[in-house]
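Help needed: design a sequence for this.
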């Protein structure tokens, strides 16, 4: 008789595609799928049932269980690994999918440039690049702020984290990374994994080879200018060239995923925060008044950032209600239990930042953008986890927060921003939460006020804009 404790509730397999169909539906819209999953099946539910299935567990108690037990729950890449000795596999050879002593070793290597003490040295470069961006804008323009922020954060990452003054090459690599991720998670690739002529799988492998070539070109360019730098790419090169601690494969994978992580989450945090402020004029006015009082038109110094209490609260609330990372997963290396259910080895166990942040028992009126809640609310690391929690907390969290605050503080002193009326604000993203059609905004002079405008789309499922 089958053990009922292994029968995790969840949607039945789809016709024709079976459990693969559930997974593909999930990947098309993770936020929507996870919302339905919890609503219909409760705190623990299966996307893929059976041996080596995929289970989601919702809530801080499960976040803590998963994230505080790295010996049981291993990190693995969400991208398809590809054949042995392939570019596809090398592109996933990064700290995000490493475990145990190897993971700890890589975090020790990569942490110094991202340590809180180190990032204040990046302030001048952040200010310089933001000023250059602002110089190209003028009142009356309509800009896609998602694309503007992506370009700016890529500039900042290329300069301070990769030691590259010219962002052209990193920009090309970033575009290819975005395309590679889409190919690696597409339904045709997942359903028909055959390296045959004309198949989407083979085209994905060839594209991975082209991406690897571009990454190696960027690495070689940095190596030719090696000057004992302390940026991430220089540290990886030293560990590869001088100590052999980092293999050639890992050099590709670390560069690939670190570049992606360095700009994508910061871009989405900036975009959503500006959108939320623009749609909440009274809150935006409070932030702008604080900036005027503390900064008086100047870019913030490291010390002044700590005095921008309202800006900090607005950013915290933005990261809560529209977190850059929607979910993540671990893979069990041994049988275990979660809640009342048992799982076997090689089961994928997922948790969701988004669902946790929208639990009314933790954050009352969770769909309301309410920065004031942070004056009295102090959630645990497993209740509020925009950058993860436990021993695998994002090593770039302090860098992302500082760069986001510096950029917002400067932008909001130079311009007022309003969303183009009746824009469709939908969501997209495999793991991250980004606006599907960009973020069209109109710029005006700083003496203008903010004004909420009507918008369309699934944003109304996520944020109460009434």
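Sure. Designed sequence:
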């Amino acid at each position: 008789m089958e053990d009922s404790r292994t029968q995790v509730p969840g949607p039945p397999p789809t016709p024709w595609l079976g459990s693969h169909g559930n997974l593909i539906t999930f990947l098309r819209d993770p936020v929507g799928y996870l919302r339905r999953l919890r609503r219909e099946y409760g705190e623990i539910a299966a996307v893929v049932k059976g041996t080596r299935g995929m289970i989601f567990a919702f809530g801080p108690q499960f976040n803590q269980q998963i994230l505080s037990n790295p010996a049981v729950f291993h990190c693995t890449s969400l991208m398809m690994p590809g054949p042995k000795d392939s570019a596809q596999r090398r592109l996933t050879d990064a700290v995000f999918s490493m475990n145990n002593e190897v993971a700890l070793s890589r975090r020790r290597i990569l942490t110094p440039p991202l340590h809180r003490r180190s990032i204040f040295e990046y302030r001048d470069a952040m200010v310089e690049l933001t000023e250059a961006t602002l110089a190209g804008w003028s009142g009356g323009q309509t800009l896609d702020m998602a694309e503007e922020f992506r370009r700016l954060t890529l500039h900042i990452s290329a300069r301070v984290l990769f030691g590259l003054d010219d962002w052209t090459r990193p920009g090309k690599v970033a575009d290819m990374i975005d395309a590679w991720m889409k190919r690696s998670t597409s339904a045709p690739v997942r359903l028909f994994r055959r390296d045959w002529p004309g198949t989407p799988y083979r085209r994905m492998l060839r594209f991975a080879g082209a991406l690897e070539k571009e990454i190696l070109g960027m690495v070689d360019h940095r190596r030719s200018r090696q000057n004992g730098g302390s940026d991430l790419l220089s540290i990886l090169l030293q560990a590869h060239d001088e100590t052999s601690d980092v293999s050639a494969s890992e050099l590709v994978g670390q560069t690939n995923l670190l570049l992606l992580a360095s700009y994508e989450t910061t871009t989405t945090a900036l975009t959503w925060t500006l959108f939320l402020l623009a749609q909440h004029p009274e809150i935006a006015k409070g932030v702008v008044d604080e900036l005027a009082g503390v900064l008086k038109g100047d870019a913030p110094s490291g010390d002044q950032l700590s005095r921008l209490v309202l800006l900090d609260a607005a950013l915290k609330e933005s990261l809560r209600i529209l977190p850059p990372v929607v979910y993540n997963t671990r893979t069990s290396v041994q049988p275990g239990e979660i809640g009342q259910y048992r799982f076997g080895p090689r089961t994928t166990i997922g948790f969701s930042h988004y669902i946790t942040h929208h639990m009314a028992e933790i954050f009352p009126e969770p769909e309301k953008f309410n920065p004031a809640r942070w004056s009295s609310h102090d959630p645990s690391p497993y209740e509020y986890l925009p950058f993860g929690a436990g021993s695998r907390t994002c090593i770039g969290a302090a860098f992302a927060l500082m760069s986001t605050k510096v950029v917002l503080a400067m932008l909001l002193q130079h311009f007022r921003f309003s969303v183009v009326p009746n824009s469709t604000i939908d969501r997209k993203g495999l793991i991250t939460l980004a606006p599907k059609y960009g973020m069209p905004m109109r710029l005006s002079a700083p003496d203008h006020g903010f004004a909420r405008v009507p918008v369309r789309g699934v944003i109304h499922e996520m944020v109460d804009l009434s």
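The radius of gyration is 22 Å.
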